[in-house]
């Protein structure tokens, strides 16, 4: 084989080696192009033995909302007011009066203030807290639902909370967000359904929902 022919053979070999790499790169590029962001609810549970938490900063959309039913069932001196869940106070873990203790099977619906923001709210996050003097009533077990202003009678499930502990833990915190930044839009009503709770009822301390007024210009279209 002369030098010239050898050079041609080497060129073909190198070209042959490159072809699979180019083809593979094309396939990967096509696959990547097909990948798109999907909305996904993220539920994060944490707990501690101190009941010391830093509450999120912002206006709680539940604060000042009217509730149905108006009052909560009382156990062991717990609060009969759902507003105890939205007063910005966690209370001492030993203070049962700072708790709201619905039974399994109970629900509560918060009607958000639509008097000014009549298009409803975009929900960004939920932060819920529960504590008791011992680890026997600090779990969180409920589902979160919402209904939009456009369809106030249709409740959709947003998330299921299942935050469980054992001794010496006495306090739990659950944070719920969405990978898109928005859990739901145009929301007028939020409902919590309590079921499967530890020892029948637990010491719920604070429910915080952050979000924004829905922006519509000139009007909202579904
Ligand atoms: Ca509270
Ligand atoms: Ca527990």
Features:
222 residues, alpha+beta, Jelly Rolls, 2 domains, nine-stranded antiparallel beta sheet, 1 helix, 9 strands, 33% strand, disordered N terminus, binds calcium ion
Give me the secondary-structure topology.
Layout: H1 3-34, E1 41-48, E2 66-68, E3 107-111, E4 121-131, E5 140-148, E6 156-163, E7 171-178, E8 184-194, E9 204-213
Antiparallel strand pairs: 1-7, 2-3, 3-8, 4-7, 4-8, 4-9, 5-6, 5-8
Low-confidence stretches: 1-20, 27-36
The CATH superfamily name of the largest domain is Galactose-binding domain-like
Q: Could you please say which CATH topology of the largest domain applies here?
A: Jelly Rolls
Q: How confident is the prediction overall: mean pLDDT?
A: 87
Structural class: alpha+beta
Instruction: Based on Cα principal axes, name the global outline.
Output: globular
Number of helices: 1
- Biggest pleated sheet: 9 strands, antiparallel
Describe this structure in words.
The protein has 222 residues and is α+β, with helices and mostly antiparallel strands. β5 and β6 (156-163) form a beta hairpin. Helices cover 14% and strands 33% of the residues.
What's the short story on this structure?
With 222 residues, this protein is an alpha+beta fold. The chain has 1 helix and 9 strands; from the N terminus they run H-E-E-E-E-E-E-E-E-E.
